[in-house]
Design brief:
By secondary structure, the chain is of the alpha/beta class. Helices cover about 40% and strands about 25% of the residues. The longest helix is centred in the middle third of the chain and has 15 residues. InterPro entries: CheY-like_superfamily, OmpR/PhoB-type_DNA-bd, Sig_transdc_resp-reg_receiver, WalR-like, WH-like_DNA-bd_sf.
């Protein structure tokens, strides 16, 4: 996924960014709400991680503004505000999850996956695709019962197709899911990852529509 992290604590922000990147997601990190607003206009995000106390304002009004404009991007609140009233305010403003600092980074990864599955319309983490058995929660895949090792980026790319099984995804859309703003992208990076997935999971697991993009096929 492409994730927008809005967090002004440098140490915590770096830890969250590194955790999400290690999971294979692309992360854009800003520390102010005005920067967040600009980022949302410039890119399509799959998830927003939102602190509630930022240098230039509060997260709840920002979230209400997003929802008021019809933006349905999943939003997880990450905050030190731990009162029940704070949780209620955040959830009523349109948040999809609420985590109180300090939290375990592994739990954050799990919750990100859970929110992503709900928005993809398939909360069940187990998917069968021909000879492939996929566990989205464990981020694992087996071919004919034998585990297949995927790199973090290969997994995120494969997950993108699993979440939109009938949709044609362009090269630009896939690059947005894999890479953040400040990453230099090789011109053939997507082609390389797709080729590796085909070698590991089956030649027809991803179909190519020449000049248009890729979609999930049958392995």
């Amino acid at each position: 996924m492409r994730v927008l992290l809005i967090e002004d604590d440098t140490a915590l922000g770096a830890a969250i960014r590194d955790q999400i990147a290690a999971d294979g997601h692309s992360v854009d990190w800003v520390n102010r709400l005005d920067q967040a607003g600009d980022a949302i206009v410039a890119a399509a995000y799959d998830l927003v991680l939102l602190d509630l106390m930022l240098p230039d304002g509060l997260g709840v009004p920002f979230l209400k503004g997003l929802r008021g404009r019809g933006d349905v991007t999943p939003v997880m609140i990450l905050t030190a505000l731990d009162q029940v009233s704070d949780r209620i305010a955040g959830l009523n403003a349109g948040a999809d999850d609420y985590m109180v600092k300090p939290f375990d980074l592994a739990e954050l990864s799990a919750r990100i996956g859970s929110v992503a599955r709900r928005y993809a319309g398939n909360p069940n983490p187990n998917i069968t695709l021909g000879p492939l058995a996929v566990d989205l929660a464990a981020r694992s895949v087996a071919l004919n019962g034998k585990p297949v090792a995927l790199t973090a980026r290969e997994w995120v790319l494969f997950e993108a197709f699993l979440q939109r099984p009938a949709q044609l995804l362009s090269k630009a859309q896939l690059e947005e899911r894999l890479y953040s703003f400040d990453t230099e992208i090789d011109s053939n990076a997507i082609e390389v990852h797709v080729s590796r997935l085909r070698k590991k999971l089956g030649a027809h697991v991803i179909e190519t529509e020449r000049g248009l993009g890729y979609r999930l096929g049958q392995p």
